[in-house]
Structure formats: structure tokens, C-alpha cells
Amino acid sequence: MNLDDLLQKSNGKLCVYQGLIAEADEPLSDRLTVVIPDMHLLEKKKTDDFWDNNPDHEQRFLSFLDFLVSLRNSEGPDLEIIQIGDLYDLWQARGDTNLISEAYPDILGNLDWLSPIYILGNHDFDLVKYYAGQTFGRKWRYFSPSQGKPRVIFEHGYQADFFNNSDKWSGTLGRGITQVLGMAEYLYPDVDVFLGSAWDSVSRTFTMYNGGLTPNTNPEGFNCHEYLNYYINLMEKYNRGDTSDQHDPTDLSLAVVGHTHLPRLAKKFINDRAYFLLDCGSWVNGGHEIGVIAGKHMAICQWG
């Protein structure tokens, strides 16, 4: 199924977000791939940014899951579904995942029925950290092949983030700050929205002065992304076979992430080769974006 077929099959519920669509030189995947970004499920309390005190947000996601179920029934193994991390927000959870499961039985039940590939994010990293030897079916990263070679790498994206990389001291500091803000949310529930808006302003300024192209000035819709060079370097390492976990030759040209909650599509040429970074957005505070890879095409789509 190509991207146009997917949009048509949604009966107008799915659309390309702000023109963020691109075409690679070669096919990126042998299957239709749908990527669900950050959800940060909690217990439907003040700090639950997915719920956001609005039952319509849950219903909208359930309608999206109904669409995925229909796709699974029609496409079978030709449909690949990836949840790219931070399904749970265990940094702000009152208890373990049982309380979250009790709050969202329909969402989690339908997701499990769809058998997505779950990737670990920094907010649900504790699923591994506190359960020795268990990953609950989650992966650190995942590769999607085309014509026998991996062409796309999927990671949550915290690995490229100075203040969220759990393997570094800076990530420990970032987690501490986040937990303090989580407690502040009980007194002022919109503190995360306020700070998020402030960070968006900083990001836009950074982009403008970093030589980036925004969708307003570039008809292709590409813009700058602070993680782009990190993931180009990572893809080139895998393509050279210069990594400790690589077993098969790769031909990576696309990295797909979540984490930032900002839907973006970035492109850069290195030695006449195009590399792409697809940042899938989020389902937090009313967001409803997904990443889509179909043949040569990649796009950020939005569910209405």
C-alpha cells in the first residue's frame, strides 16, 4: 500500500501534516510502516498529558486504533506498526504500570492485539532498569529492511539529547528536573505547556540562526533538527559496519525518532547522498501525529 492509498482508505481522517513529506531515491521499506510517537500514559490525573482532562483525546486515539485494526485485517504482515517509546510516563507515575493499565484497558488491549514493535523511551526506560533481564518485549532500536538490507533505523531519540540520555550524568540531571516539574504540575497543571511553548520558541530561534530551512521558506517542507548530525553519524557507522551490535550490511538513509514532541522532517546531503530524519511528533496535550513510511515515501501525518 502506498501513501496515497493509505490516506484514501482513512476517509479523510488522515492527512499529511504541514507538507512534511519526502521521497527517497530508493525504497525504504518492503512494508507499510506506521509509527506511533510519545503518549506518556498515566492514571488520568492532573499530570496525565495524554488524557489532558479531555475524554475526546482518548476517543480520538481509539478511533485511530480502529483504523489500524482494519488495516491489519486487510494488509496482514504487509503492515508494520511501531510504538517508538514513552508509551508510559513512569517518571511521574504514582505506582507501577498496573494503575496505567487499569486507566487505559481499551488502548493497551488494542495495541497488544495489533502486535506493534515497542521501543524504549527515556520515560519508560524503568521497565528495563528495575526488572533485571526483562525488557517486556521492548527494543533499544529497530531496523526496517528493503530488498534485503536495513534502510531505516528507529530509536526513541533520547540518545541524542544531552539532558535525557539515561547513560550520562546529564540525563540524570534532566530526569531530576522533570520529576520536580512533575510535582509542580499538581499545583499548576499547565506548567508543562508553558515551558514547552518557551522551549519551542528557543528551538525556532536556534533553527533560524543555524542555517535551517523552515516549511514557510522551503517548498519541500524540510527544516533543521538538532539531532540530524547525530543520526547521520550513527547511520554512517552502521553502513560502514563500524558498530558493536551490527551483524548484517546496512544501507541506512532514514532515522525515525519521537521524544521531542515536535513533528519535523529534516534532510542533509553527505557526499552526494541524502540522509533523512523523521521526527514523528506526539499524542501529548492534544497532539495526534504519526510517522508513515511507504515505499520511497516518508511523511508526518495527522489523525483528525
Overall description:
This protein has a single domain, classed as Purple Acid Phosphatase, chain A, domain 2 (4-Layer Sandwich), CATH 3.60.21. It has 304 residues and is α/β, with parallel strands linked by helices. The chain contains eight helices and twelve strands. The strands form two sheets. Strands 1-12-11-2-3-4-5 form a seven-stranded mixed β-sheet, covered by helices on one side. The longest helix is centred in the first third of the chain and has 21 residues, at 55-75. The chain is globular, with a radius of gyration of 19 Å. 33% of the residues lie in helices and 22% in strands. It has helices at residues 3-9, 55-75, 97-103, 105-114, 126-129, 169-187, 191-209, 228-240, and strands spanning 14-23, 32-36, 79-83, 117-119, 138-139, 142-146, 149-154, 254-257, 264-270, 273-279, 289-294, 297-303. The model is unreliable at 197-220 (pLDDT under 50).
Descriptive keywords:
304 residues, alpha/beta, Purple Acid Phosphatase, chain A, domain 2, five-stranded mixed β-sheet, 22% strand, globular
Portion of residues in beta strands equals: 15-25%
The coarse overall form would be globular
- Structural class computed from helices and strand pairing: alpha/beta
CATH architecture designation: 4-Layer Sandwich
Tally of alpha and pi helices: 8
Mean pLDDT: 83
Number of strands: 12
**Structural domain tally:** 1
CATH class (first level) name: Alpha Beta
Explain briefly what this protein structure is.
The chain has helices at 3-9, 55-75, 97-103, 105-114, 126-129, 169-187, 191-209, 228-240, and strands at 14-23, 32-36, 79-83, 117-119, 138-139, 142-146, 149-154, 254-257, 264-270, 273-279, 289-294, 297-303. It is built from eight helices and twelve strands.
